[in-house]
Every structure is written in C-alpha cells, then in structure tokens.
Amino acid sequence: QSALTQPASVSGSPGQSITISCTGTSSDVGGYNYVSWYQQHPGKAPKLMIYDVSNRPSGVSNRFSGSKSGNTASLTISGLQAEDEADYYCSSYTSSSTLVFGTGTKVTVL
Amino acid sequence: QLQLQESGPGLVKPSETLSLTCTVSGGSISSSSYYWGWIRQPPGKGLEWIGSIYYSGSTYYNPSLKSRVTISVDTSKNQFSLKLSSVTAADTAVYYCVCLRVVVITWWGQGTLVTVSS
Prior knowledge:
The structure holds two protein chains of two kinds.
Chain A: E1 9-12, E2 18-23, E3 35-40, E4 47-50, E5 64-69, E6 72-77, E7 86-93, E8 99-101, E9 105-109
Parallel strand pairs in A: 1-9
Antiparallel strand pairs in A: 2-6, 3-4, 3-7, 5-6, 7-8, 7-9
Chain B: E1 3-7, E2 11-12, E3 18-25, E4 35-41, E5 48-54, E6 59-61, E7 69-74, E8 79-84, E9 93-101, E10 104-108, E11 112-116
Parallel strand pairs in B: 2-11
Antiparallel strand pairs in B: 1-3, 3-8, 4-5, 4-9, 5-6, 7-8, 9-10, 9-11
C-alpha cells in the first residue's frame, strides 16, 4: 500500500490559518470516513487531533478542524500558535482492512 | 486512562528476529472496545503501521511486512507482542505500541528505539 500524500512543509504566522492536505485514493481516503490526524512534537509520541474526518477528541482545541472532499482530506489549524509547530500525519482505513499513514507535514510557525 | 509500555532489546543483529512486548495498564486487553497494534518510525522519517490485533486473536498486517510479522496477545499477562523476522538495517526505528478504537489510534506508548546492527 502506498503512503498518503501530504505536503512536506506548511508555514504560517501566529494568528493565521493553515491547511494541510492528505491525498489518497478511492480505496482509502475517498472510500471511507475513517481519516485521522496526529500531531507529533520532536521526541514525543504522536497525539490524536482529529478522527473520523472531522471529529475532535475531548481536550483538543477547537482551532483544529478536519474535512474531506473526494480522495483528499484536510486539516485546518486556525489562530496558529507557537505550540502548533510540529509534524502532522494523516491516516486512513483502507479497503484491505489495513491502515495507511500520510507522508507527514512539518508545520512551522514563523 | 490506559497506559502502554514497550519493552525488549534495543539492539538486534541483522537476519535475527526483533521481539517487543507491550504491557497494558489501566484497562483490560480483553476489552471488546479496543484493538492493539504496533507503529514504527525510522529516525527522521514518517510513521508506518505494522499491524493490529483484536483480543480474540484476529490480526491485520501491513502487506509490505506481512511475511515477516507476527502480533500476538497474552490476556493472562495483559500484554501483546510483536515479532519481526529477518531484520535488516531498514528495520531500525522507534517502535510504538498503540491502542486503537477500531481504526483510530487513541493511546500510544512512549516508544522504544530498536537498532539493527552487528
């Protein structure tokens, strides 16, 4: 299975909004509403930020939102803060009953 | 609040079998609500799903690793394990054990670095 495609890097100034894309196929992202997003700070384990395309776990800031259109899912961070600087990974369930991750996106707060 | 802790050798020789165990606390590995799995991350690279298991023993593996991977559950010890055979330097990574609500990774272990080297 091929990794989902994410931009290598996205940057923004504090207070701005940024969007990270996650592109797959009709066998994964496009076929199921089972896209999740994870945030990973250096040296730390990832943390769940969004699940089932657009749902936020308890405790995750409402500045984080998710959506999907066709074979592409997106994570939007609004009101960008310094603490949001991290790597972000999407994941999707696949038609083979497996999970696949995205290539990862480094978010830089300018 | 579930807690997961990986344990196992930090150094494995090429061609040998990597073996890791994850001890679960704060919850039962026999719960019908959870799946258990392994994720790895080579140094400086992205995440890779290795596989998942349900307490009943049903397993799901990454097709690219399937021929070398075995994930098992020991309900008596509240643990699950990973075995990866015929390792090479490409298997050097931080290995995370995780708890999934079906396909959503909700809890992560702290991760353990396994280096493949002679």
